[in-house]
């Protein structure tokens, strides 16, 4: 398999910048953008230039470093800490659903709180070290998810996936796609069916692109075709990612995931969620408590720049939905596989 481009990379020391793939342009154009201000990081997250819960978390961590560059060398520690809180709060407002965003920001703030003896300049360097560690750990997490998940896949399996949970959504091989990459690397023959994932077509634009880059057979289908390919027995497993998972195992992912989970249950097909432990939010008892981001009506009425609905049409555009734990056969994490998916098993795995 060919080497795939990195979703993001840091350049230089603590006064450097973040380079990332602009995913809004794929697959027609491959372009990397440079983020040199915290406002540019915020915009990249908000506008989906970078997306996927783990990648958002990594970007936010680097955003903290960038946001502190204006005063790190000549401020006192009180001013530095106040600016850190300001930057973290600002970045937290970019997107409300992906828990990795808040996890990464909280981790950066915790490191600062635990190192009060460091002067601002040294603390700034320490925060860059932490951001790099978050990215490195994410890459290792992807590999571990791939190893655990590949054990669930037999050669000859047709796999349906929804949205994009590959390398573009993480710092490594992804979550759901990491399972497929690992299975393919083991010599298992698989055929992936990718939902196009309306309204922003992350499956069509990103997932198919990634799988083609890595030489994994992929067939693109409309979201509404998922039930038909299951009925035709083309699919023997469904694997998706997740943006937030509640304490009981309810998993929030891109809109349309709930429908796929229901269809899989109806056809007796195992539905797997692949996600790192940082995606779990144990403060939320169940998925009903997960905040669901609503996005602009134009994403539906004027998708990809072309008007497809009458002007002034009422639109409801939730970006995510929740697959309840009872529809999930297993959750694949970097620590192992949670099966069956229960509150007790979730906590046991996370505490292992």
What brief labels describe this structure?
352 residues; alpha/beta; Four Helix Bundle (Hemerythrin (Met), subunit A); Rossmann fold; 2 domains; 4-stranded mixed sheet; 14 strands; 16% strand; IF-M1Pi; methionine biosynthesis; S-methyl-5-thioribose-1-phosphate isomerase activity; Methylthioribose-1-phosphate isomerase; NagB/RpiA_transferase-like
CATH second-level architecture of the largest domain: 3-Layer(aba) Sandwich
Query: Would you give the CATH topology of the largest domain?
Result: Rossmann fold
* Proportion in helices: 25-40%
- What is the rounded Rg? 20 Å
Strand order of the largest sheet: 6-5-4-7-10-13-14
Basic shape = globular
Task: State the CATH superfamily name of the largest domain.
Answer: Translation initiation factor eif-2b, domain 2
Give the total of domains.
Answer: 2
Q: Major beta sheet, specifics?
A: 7 strands, mixed
Provide a descriptive summary of the structure in words.
The protein has helices at 38-46, 53-67, 77-92, 99-113, 120-150, 176-185, 202-213, 226-231, 257-266, 298-301, 343-351; strands at 8-11, 17-21, 32-35, 157-161, 190-195, 218-221, 237-240, 244-246, 251-254, 271-274, 280-281, 320-323, 330-333, 336-338. By secondary structure, the protein is α/β, with parallel strands linked by helices. The protein has two domains: 8-142, translation initiation factor eif-2b, domain 1 (Four Helix Bundle (Hemerythrin (Met), subunit A)), CATH 1.20.120; 147-351, Translation initiation factor eif-2b, domain 2 (Rossmann fold). The chain has a seven-stranded mixed sheet, with helices on both faces. A four-stranded mixed sheet has the order 11-8-9-12, with helices on one face. A three-stranded antiparallel sheet has the order 1-2-3, covered by helices on one side. Strand 8 (244-246) and strand 9 (251-254) form a beta hairpin. The mean pLDDT is 96.
């Amino acid at each position: 398999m060919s080497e795939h481009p990195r979703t993001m990379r840091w350049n230089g020391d603590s006064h450097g910048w973040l380079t990332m793939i602009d995913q809004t342009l794929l697959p027609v154009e491959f372009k990397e953008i440079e983020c040199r201000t915290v406002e540019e990081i915020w915009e990249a997250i908000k506008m989906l230039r970078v997306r996927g819960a783990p990648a958002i978390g990594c970007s936010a961590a680097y955003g903290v470093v960038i946001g502190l560059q204006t005063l790190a060398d000549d401020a006192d520690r009180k001013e530095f800490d106040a600016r850190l809180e300001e930057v973290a709060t600002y970045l937290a407002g970019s997107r409300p659903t992906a828990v990795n965003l808040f996890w990464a920001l909280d981790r950066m703030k915790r490191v600062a709180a635990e190192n009060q003896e460091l002067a601002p300049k040294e603390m700034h360097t320490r925060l860059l070290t932490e951001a790099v560690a978050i990215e490195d750990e994410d890459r290792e997490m992807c590999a571990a998810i791939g190893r655990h998940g590949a054990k669930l896949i037999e050669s000859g399996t047709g796999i349906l996936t929804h949205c994009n949970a590959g390398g573009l959504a993480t710092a490594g091989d992804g979550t759901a796609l990491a399972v497929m990459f690992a299975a393919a690397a083991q010599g298992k023959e698989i055929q992936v069916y990718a939902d196009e994932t309306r309204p922003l077509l992350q499956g069509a634009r990103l997932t198919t692109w990634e799988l083609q880059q890595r030489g994994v057979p992929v067939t693109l289908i409309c979201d509404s075709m998922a039930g038909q390919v299951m009925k035709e027995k083309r699919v023997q497993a469904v694997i998706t990612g997740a943006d937030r998972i509640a304490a009981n195992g309810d998993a929030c992912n891109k809109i349309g995931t709930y429908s796929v989970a229901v269809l899989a249950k109806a056809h007796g097909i195992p539905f797997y969620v692949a996600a790192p432990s940082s995606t779990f939010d144990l403060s939320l008892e169940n998925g009903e408590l997960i905040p669901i981001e609503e996005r602009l009506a134009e994403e539906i009425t004027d998708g990809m720049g072309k008007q497809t609905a009458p002007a002034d049409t009422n639109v409801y555009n939730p970006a995510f939905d929740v697959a309840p734990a009872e529809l999930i056969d297993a959750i694949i994490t970097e620590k192992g596989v949670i099966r069956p998916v229960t509150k007790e098993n979730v906590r046991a795995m996370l505490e292992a």
